[in-house]
Amino acid sequence: MLRVFYPESFPDEGSVLSLPKEESHHLVRVRRARLGDAVELLDGKGGFAIARIDEVAGKRVSLRLESVSRSLVERTPVRLCLAFPKPKIFEALLAKCVELGVTDILPLATDHADPAVAKTEDASRRERWQQILVEAMKQSGNLNLPQLHETQSLDSALASAAPDRLRICAALQPGSESLWTILQQESARLRQGIDLYIGPEGDFSKPEYQRLRESCSFFTLGENVLRVETAAVSVAAIVHEALRVLPESASLE
Q: Hey, which CATH number is domain 78-245, 3.40.1280.10, 3.90.70.10, 3.40.640.10, 3.40.50.300?
C-alpha cells in the first residue's frame, strides 16, 4: 500500500485534497505512483484514510478521499528515556522505536554521556529526526507518530513521569530481575503505561543509580554488556510483545 503523511484534519469522504510538496514528490518520483492508484493517508494521531490519485499537476498530487477511519485500539503509553547516543546510532534507533510502538522518545543528558553529542541537537538535525520518524511510520503502518522530546536531565525525566506508570531501568546492578518476569508480575499496571530507562555506554553513575532506585525497578537483559542501541531495541521489542500477549491479570505460578 502506498502511504503518505497528512497531519491535518481529513475532509469529508468524496473531497479532493492536495498533498504537500514533499509527499507529492515521494509518491510520484520515488514510489512511481500513477493516476487511480490507491493511497493510504496517516495523520500520525490514529486516523487514516483511503484515497485515490485524482490528478498529478507539476509537483503537486491531488487525492480523492474514499473513506476516513480512526483506529479503535487504545495505545499504551511507552516512553523511552534514553541516554543520548551518537547521532548516527540515534537516527537508526528512531525508526526502530516507530516500528515497535514507542509513543514518546526522551533523550537524556547523563553524567557519563559524551557532552559533545548533545550539541548536535540543533534545529536542522531535529527536522531530520522528525522526518525519519515520519518515514518509519509510513513504512511500518504504525498509525501513531511518536513524540520526540527535547533532551532532558535524568532528574527532569523522573520528575515528569506519570505516577501510575510502571518505571523500569536496564541496570548492571545486583538484584536486577529478568525483564519478562517484571512484565508478567506487573502486567495489570503495564496497561497504564511504562517508562523505560536506558543508560549510556559508560552506564549510569552511582548517584544516578541511587535516584533511579527510588522510583524504578531494575531489570537485566543477561550477563553481557550491551550497547545502547542493542539494549533499547531489545527492551522495546520485549515490551511490545508483552503488551500484545500478556493478559491484564497475568501472574506467575
A: 3.40.1280.10
